[in-house]
Amino acid sequence: MRAVPPISRVAHCIQEFARRAGSAWRARRGKWQLYTFSGALRGTAAGALTWRHRHWLLAGLALVCTAVLGVVLPGFANATLDPDAAAYTVVPLALPPLPAPDPARAPAPIDDDADWQTVRVRAGQTLGDIFREQGFAAGDLQRLLNDQANAGALRHIRPGEEFAFLRRADGGLAALRFDRDDRTRVIARFDDAGLRQEIIPRALEHRTHVAHGVIESSLFDAGAQAGLSNAMVLKLANAFGYDIDFAQDLRQGDSFTVIYDMVYCDGERLHDGDIVAATFVNRGKRFSAFRYTDASGATMFYSDDGRPLRKSFLRTPLEFSRITSYFTAARLHPILGTMRAHQGVDYAAPTGTPIHAAGDGKVAFRGWQGGYGNVVILQHGGHYSTLYGHMSRIAPLHVGQHVAQGQTIGYVGMTGLATGPHLHYEFRIDGAHRNPLTVTLPKPDPLPAPELARFKRETAPLLAKLKALEATQLALAN
User: Model-level pTM greater than 0.70?
Assistant: First the structure.
């Protein structure tokens, strides 16, 4: 006899029980129909009650059977399930095809330097000019300018700066690479989703250089021979500009020694740094300059004894080409034709050359004054005043306004009694005229004692290096 599985035996017993209960109920129902009318009336209530009890019994039995099957069947099913025989039904769904990529708009790999086109800014160019020359959309440039962090670097570009472009296959702009500043490089990627920017920090490196030069024809020629750029030569002149008049005082054989730094990034030279220390020998007199930042954070040049090189007054308040008239008690006036004192110095310069305040002070007068034409008079404390005449125009100033040394107060012209564009500059002490070229200017106070001690410690190695360089150059010259 074939063995019946346990689960089959349980089901068989339940079915047999239900069959027998049903047969007994049908037999009783047949007998109940043979009762007399009166007997039927008497048995109605009891019959109805018996009916309910039977139905409740059957319903309860069905619920018990369902519960038993719900508990027992999953266990047996899991026990007999063959994991390797599990079946899956796959229903294929029709999906719309993906749009084919447009190869014309596919950008080149952004990390492949060979695909970047580098453009160097020329004098007078704007970034808009470069975009038009390259055939790129103005809208892409506007998206860059809408980022305020980019606006300053992109609106005020300088000759020599570089911008790298990456093109799509259709010639459109895929990416732009530029330096927002010395420490930040930006890669801007353009696509259908908009503008995406990657900010790349750049580590700067300052390398120290030394140079020595001897004046043969001019300061710039000597600087070029020593390997200095024109910008660094100007920094050298500005450092000593309070003590040396580089237009009048230079002599053949004068010399300089300078320690300066250059700024590099990723091994590439970016631009000139600052002068760290320097000496200048003019007419046999030795001057020194050391760049130093004091406890308050102010940075300026000091002499080796800790006294600021910045004087109370600039010796010359503009960049000029030559002196056309000196301070003298008697001069033939070029227009009036009479002998009269010339109580200032005339500096010839092109019309529009900026004129700077010789020292800190306030505006005592601005406007037209006889033969001076457009003139500005500054009062510096209680004893000193300066006058600037023949201006083509005066800067936006008002009487009583405070100005700082070096601030632009006007522009060279030839208003009033003048035969050519120049600045007439006067220097007065307690109202008396003094020769601006020879007047003894007040010396600034040295650093206070605690600050001076720190200055000495920091500059001692630089001073020793300068002296060693000077000794080496002297030995080579001899």
Answer: no
Alpha-carbon distance of 302 to 138, in angstroms, equals 50
Among 378, 323, 345, 358, CA closest to 242: 358
Domains of the chain: total: 3
User: Would you place residue 28 in the very low, low, confident or very high pLDDT band (cuts 50, 70, 90)?
Assistant: low
Say if residues 422 and 342 touch (Cβ distance below 8 Å): no
The identity of residue 400, as a single letter, is G
Which amino acid appears at position 31 of this protein? K
For residue 299, being part of any structural domain is answered with: yes
Over residues 245-279, the pLDDT tens digits come to: 887 789 999 999 999 998 887 777 777 889 999 99
Query: 326 and 430: one domain?
Result: yes
Under a CB-based contact definition with an 8 Å cutoff, are residues 343 and 327 in contact?
yes
176 closest CA partner among 139, 141, 133, 211: 141
User: Does residue 66 sit within a domain?
Assistant: no
- What pLDDT digit, counting tens, does each position of 440-451 carry? 887 777 899 999
HEC string of the chain equals: CCCCCHHHHHHHHHHHHHHHHHHHHHHHHHHHCCCCHHHHHHHHHHHHHHHHHHHHHHHHHHHHHHHHHHHHHHHHHHHHCCHHHCCCCCCCCCCCCCCCCCHHHCECCCCCHHHCEEEECCCCCCHHHHHHHHCCCHHHHHHHHCCHHHHHHHHCCCCCCEEEEEEECCCCEEEEEEEEECCEEEEEEEECCEEEEEEEECCEEEEEEEEEEECCCCHHHHHHHCCCCHHHHHHHHHHCCCCCCCCCCCCCCCEEEEEEEEEEECCEEEEEEEEEEEEEEECCEEEEEEEEECCCCCEEEECCCCCECCCCCCCCCCCCCEEEECCEEEEECCCCCCEEEECCEEEECCCCCEEECCCCEEEEEEEECHHHCEEEEEEECCCEEEEEEEEEEECCCCCCCEECCCCEEEEEECCCCCCCCEEEEEEEECCEEECCCCCCCCCCCCCCHHHHHHHHHHHHHHHHHHHHHHHHHHHHHC
Confidence at residue 200, expressed as pLDDT on a 0 to 100 scale: 87
Domain assignment of residue 10, yes or no: no
85 part of a folded domain: no
Q: Which of 353, 355, 371 is nearest to 415 (CA)?
A: 371
